[in-house]
Amino acid sequence: MTIPVLVFESKREKGRYLSNGIDCADSDHIDGDVTDLKLAMMIWRIDLQVPTKKDLQENIDLSREYKKRMRELYGDEAIVSFDMELWLELYEPVVKHLDVETFNNAREWDQ
Q1: Model pTM score
Q2: Which of 18-22, 24-28, 80-84, 91-95 has the lowest mean pLDDT?
Q3: Cβ atoms of 31 and 19 closer than 8 Å
Q4: CB of 2 within 8 A of CB of 97?
């Protein structure tokens, strides 16, 4: 069994993915991008079906609202790392299929 997830692959460097945060970023890579999918930022569905364009758009909308709220609270210079519109300038969303063990290890980073 595999689990489909949406990850963000670098447009400049195939096989490199947006990391799931600073604590799992590749410190030897200029952008911190990772090659290990369990360390990549990912979107998955609760029903474990393939993530759709609608799922991606819902996350973009959530990110947009978060960014707006952060700027309301902290001003236009607020640091916002959950900025999917910026991610999509630099990364291509791609579906990957993870084995259950890799998927479970990836979820541990989100806990």
Answers
A1: 0.90
A2: 24-28
A3: no
A4: yes
What gap in Å lies between CA 14 and CA 35, rounded to an integer? 9
| pLDDT digit string, tens, across residues 50-90 | 999 999 999 999 999 999 999 999 999 999 999 999 999 99
Contact status, residue 81 vs residue 70, Cβ threshold 8 Å: no
DSSP H helical ranges for 27-94 = 53-74, 84-90
The two structure tokens encoding residue 18: 């947006």
Angle at 80 between CA 79 and CA 84, to 5 degrees: 155
Which amino acid, residue 10?
A: S
Residue 81: which region, alpha, beta or left (left: phi > 0; alpha: psi -120 to 50)? alpha
Say which amino acid occupies 44: W
As given in the structure block, the two tokens for residue 32 are 């911190």
Q: Domains of the chain: which residue ranges?
A: 2-109
